[in-house]
Each structure stands twice: as structure tokens, then as C-alpha cells.
Amino acid sequence: MSGSLVVVGLGPGNPDQMTQEALAAVTAAEDFFGYFPYIDRLNLRPDQRRHASDNREELARARAALETAAGGGKVCVVSGGDPGVFAMAAAVCEAIDVGPAEWRDIDFSVVPGVTAMLAVAARAGAPLGHDFCAISLSNNLKPWKVIEKRLVAAATAGFVMAFYNPVSKARPHQLGDAFALLRRHLPGEVPVIFGRAAGRPDEAIRIVPLEAAESGMADMATCVIVGTAETRIVERQGKRPIVYSPRYFKDGFGGAGA
Ligand code: SAH
């Protein structure tokens, strides 16, 4: 008899930013699959089984979780933030797509979570207040050329951009290359927000103009938001400035390349 598999978003790190629906799904499940720091965040009961794994093994983890569910288990796959944003939900869907027919009988669901860009944006004001997009800068699963094409397209079309996976040890130069490319298409004053470990005790938010943005300002726990020519900074005495993208669109386009 087939069991169930729920992919749950745990939010960016602050337990208060986990939804009631996610908490209920965790309480109801018996077998937990995920990257070990995410499983460690949960206060699992002794009767709940942990199948923690390394971060890179997403497809293998998805298959193992589906096997357990196909055998009748009540399975929970966990992701940080939202599971549909550069995370496990797509890996599970991919495994079902190409996997054995019986995996389609599994009771499959996804519980959304607060994704990193929303947690970072909330700290800064409302930088995503107008049209925006999210781009993973990791070229593990797509060529860097494609990333460059998307960066230019998004910048010249006037989208605010949220970068996930901005740097890693294997990719120390790409964020710097991305900023250099964007400086050719956007004004130097465009605000860039570096939101590190949003919602966690070591959270750090830094706002700099694009002309001063450097890759060393980000690490793997940082979500970078790049504004448009319309994005505004409201300075405040003794307080972090507010960054927002106005809801209305004036004449003209956001990018110098448009
Ligand atoms: N599913 C996750 C994203 C996974 S990709 C989500 O929805 O948030 C991993 C990337 O997410 C990191 O490299 C970083 O860019 C971003 N990220 C995850 N948690 C974060 C946090 N608490 N603060 C800032 N960025 C975070």
C-alpha cells in the first residue's frame, strides 16, 4: 500500500517564520529526509526517524524518500525557505516524472515556506514592491552563459533581481562577474541588498550602491537583491535606510541598456 510524501518549507531559519501548516505536517510525519542542518532544526520525537544527508545529493534523497513512501511510510522531505525555490520539491517531482509508475500513486503534497528573498526584502523595506525575478547564480545545473543572458534580460527589462546561491568555494568569481555585467546595463546608484542568514541570530543586512557591490560581501548564506533605476532609498537618522521599489511605473525604462 502506498504511503504519503509531503515536501515542507521550514522558512529561512527563525522558528516564528515557519507556518502552522508546516508544523502540522512535521508533527504528522514519521520518516524525515533532508539536508542534516534542516532536520536538526526540528524537535523530532524519538519515534520519528531521521534520514539526514549531504546537500548535494538531492535526486538520490528524493528517490530514497519516494521508495520509503511507496512502501507505506509517512514521509516528510524538508527544505529551508520554500521547498519550490531552488530546493527539494522540484527534485521530488523530477524523480516521480522519470521513476516507476507506482510512485504516481503516492499521496504527494508540497507545503510552502517563507523563501529567503522575502525574509531579506522584509528587513530592507519593500525592494520587491514592483516586478521582480529570482535567479540562482549556481552553474551546477545550468551553464554560466545562460545565467549571463538572464541577468542582462532581467536588468534591461526593469526587473528587481534576487540572487540565490550567489557564491560558493567552487565559484568565487561569479558574483563579481555578475555585478560587472550589471554595471554595464544599470546605473551605479541602484541599491544592492546583501541579506545574510535572514531570520537567524547571526543575521546581517548590508545595503550598498551597485557601483560599490563586491562578491566578498556575500557568502553561501546570503541572498542578494539588486534593485532597478526606480528603486528608492529612504535615509533615516540613526537607523538603517528603507529600500523600496515603487508600485507605479514612470515613463522610461529601468535599464540604460533598454
Ligand atoms: N529553498 C531556499 C533556497 C535554497 S538555495 C529558500 O526558499 O530560501 C540556497 C540559497 O538560499 C543560499 O545560497 C542563499 O542565497 C539563500 N538563503 C537560504 N536561506 C537564507 C537566509 N536565511 N538568509 C539569506 N539567504 C538565504
Describe the protein.
The chain has 258 residues and is of the alpha/beta class. Helix content is 28%, strand content 26%. The protein contains seven helices and 13 strands. The chain has helices spanning 20-28, 36-41, 58-70, 88-98, 116-124, 144-156, 174-183, and strands at residues 4-9, 31-35, 49-53, 74-79, 107-111, 125-126, 132-136, 160-164, 191-196, 204-209, 222-226, 232-236, 239-244. Strands 3-2-4-1-5 form a five-stranded parallel beta sheet, sandwiched between helices. A five-stranded mixed beta sheet has the order 7-8-11-9-10, sandwiched between helices. Strand 12 and strand 13 form a beta hairpin. The longest helix has 13 residues, at 58-70. The radius of gyration is 20 Å and the shape is elongated. It starts with a strand and ends in a 14-residue tail after the last strand. The relative contact order is 0.15. The mean pLDDT is 94.
